[in-house]
Amino acid sequence: MATPISRIAQWLDRVDPGVHRRVKGLRLVTAYGIAAMLGALRDVASGLPDAASLSVLASGFALWGSVSEGQATRGKSARDLALLSLAATLGATSFIALTPLLAGLGRTGPELVLASGAFFVGYLRRFGIAGTGFGSQLYIGQLYAFGAGLGPADLWTVIVAGMIAAVAAIVPRMLSGPAEQPPPMTEIRGHFTALSMGLQAAAAALIIVGLDLAIGLTEAAWAITACTYVIANSTAGTLDRVRRRIIGTAIGVPLALAFLPLAGHAPVVVWAAAALAMVIYAMALPERYDIACGAWAFTLIVTLAASGEHSIPLLAARAWETLIGGLLGLAAATLLFPIRAEPREKTT
Q: What is the CA radius of gyration of the chain?
């Protein structure tokens, strides 16, 4: 008779034959941990104007760079991880450079910078897996700089964070060896499709900035992120991603809120649950976007709580702001240069 452990093992083998995605998930967690640890070292952070942000920036750059990387060999992976860390650094630097120019617009100025990153997330998919990752990391860099409230004095902190992220992401990839297999990726055919995707994401982001100015949003950046990443290479694809993102977030956020009592009493358990959720994220992302979104929503909420954020209204806002961002992304994909699904899609 099969035991619960053997049943779980059989399920994992069905979902992830060859353990490729599990290895990638463990690599994400390892890269995050190495970067967070290096960024927290006193000798590394000494002399930086915003040393407290170094660990957060480095770990975020390393984590999402590892998510976006998708090469089959160590050499190519190391090259792309270095470039992806550079992209995140450039994204944060662009935020630092552009925000003072928009200072007269108040709190919406920094959000407008995120709209520029949203455009590149969509448009750079035209250049394959490397372009997709580069565009995403540009936005990630802006997003982390936005969250940390970085300014011109923090430029060196960003540069050091990028260097730490590159090391932290490359080392686990060198150790994972051949036990990874990049998932197939839909190729974006034609300049018009990629341009439309970029404009759709940017337009939805601009509407969210306007909403924040008019009525005030708890975390407008969460809504902008949702509208940015639901845009697909067809209107039907965007609809499917919106549906899956909303469902996943609606499940992941309540599960995370149920974990909140543990945040103050058993933080180790909370961080372990977050690490497990990121492994599930890596396993689910290629084929089950809903599960991936649920796993990430869970991870975000419990890590915020473990870091000291206990405001239930703020944490719960993740769900409804994802709904706003998803629906606005769908509206943009439907009304602004709608893209028809191609009859045969090629993968790389």
A: 19
